[in-house]
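Exercise: predict the structure of this protein bound to xanthosine-5'-monophosphate.
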Amino acid sequence: MADKRSIIILDFGGQYAHLIARRVRSLGAYSEIRDPSVSAKDLKDAAGIILSGGPQSVYDTASPVADAKIFSLGVPVLGICYGLQWMAKTLGGTVSPGKVKEYGHTEIKAVNGGGILLKDIGDHCTVWMSHGDEAAKLPDGFQLTATSESCANAAFEDPRRKFFAVQFHPEVTHTEHGSEILRRFVELCPATPWSVEGYAKRIGDEIAEQVQDRRVFMLVSGGVDSTVAFVLLNEVLGAHRVQGLLVDTGLMRKDEIAEIRAAFDRLGVTNVRIEDASAEFFHALEGILDPEEKRRAIGDTFLAVQKRVSEDMGLTTSDGWMLGQGTIYPDTIETKGTKHADHIKTHHNRVPAIQEMLKKGLVIEPLKELYKDEVRALGEELGLPHELVQRHPFPGPGLGVRILCAAKPDTFVVDDVGIKRWGGGWAVLPVKSVGVQGDGRTYRHALALFGKEPCTLTEQLLRFAIEIPNRRREFNRVLLCTSSAEVRPFVFSPGAITKERADLLREADAIATEEMCLAGLYERIWQFPVVLLPFGEKPGGQSVVLRPVESQEAMTARAAALPAGVLERMTQRIMKLSGVDFVFYDLTSKPPATIEWE
Ligand code: XMP
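Solution:
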């Protein structure tokens, strides 16, 4: 927002920019992510600038650069990892390949008392490093503030100009004192104070100003984001100026519509119309196999239903209605993105038709600046029930992105996957899934392991899940088959999204959710996708993947450990569903896999 002074994170790529922005906000300062190509002129009101990490070397010809004039704005600048290297090179230092590439935990020690930023880190501070290059010579005016065994210039600063550089990542939780280091930088920046408490009140004026005397029509899904946005709009504008529409896409969870209706009833929200459009969605998805095309078909159908209902109810833009959406900050960045955050997938509320409406100022998105945990805090502030606010995120296209579709098997023959120590069998699945490897999107195979105790998660299995995609780049996922101890041949069946497949996945998903809740795991697990794959032991047979993850902002994630008993019960119950031949447990972190399979 124009009148806010923010700490700007220039996104040089990788997965770090959001983590930095979140940390800065949790330290009480407003922060935003921008593309590094933004001109220094546009950043003249920034309270401070943080240059993020990124996967490239500053000497690659295509590596991202920012406007060097940012160093003349008189604002504090912090360079992290690649940001340090670009800063060093731009200000007259040199960067060269390090003696060794460092990934993971490293010990650093303070030099010159650690300067301003690393004051008090002492002689043993464990930090998270991930780099190949390093600064060889510091630019004029800088003094060294920390060193490590393999990286002589691990941190340096120019206290006069308030320029700081750290080779390690203070934004990740593995870095000791990471928060204090960022806090010291944030304290030097005159940023607009930030907290979600009171956000409802602050945003109220902006909503009123943007909507003016119009009214807002909004699609609600029952998820945290759209419910919080809807209730906020109701609160600010009054229920008579807001109309909700809940579309039953046929791709929702079991009993979800009834549960959402009951939740709204309990909240006293009556301005929501429920529209069963499932037949329309299945029709639009007929024969579509490509994940991005599916997203587009779902997004377009949402719009068509919305158009029909809004015309039917006299709620069109020509009648003075705007469109409300529950878009949150990472969604905006992921699709429109900054250039260097690789385009992973198009968000359904950023399809071209919506982009057009956005340009015309016909869309209101009251949560577009917030992260998920901030939306949850706002929901609590608005008095929404705790269970609703803590609901797991569910993607807009619903089960549509969890039903894998393919016309033919995608086989991949390999003799050795380098796991001789593994006492069991293994097999490559005949389908591919999306991942993020080396900061780019990949579309690769999953390797399934079969063991004597199929439901027991061991240290060895978790190690394989890291080692295999690292060593064999053909794989981005590692699974454990929980329904069979022995390898059985996979029989592929071509399939798009059909009501039958959606019904089958809905049942499997309901079993996983029920068992997770019974085991008291709901609040520990961040999200639990259950995915349907088009192969089994016999023609028409399907497979089910359990994908529980722990995460904070979905930018990174790791497989959540399910106790053997829970996994066994889930597997046995899902195997009883007619048409399910295999159950797998996805052990992969993000990266190298994504949370969803497509
Ligand atoms: P990935 O699979 O990229 O997912 O690790 C990150 C988060 O985004 C959700 N997701 C979506 N949400 N529309 C949505 O509204 C989509 O098309 C979509 N794709 C992924 C996913 O569930 C996870 O929380």
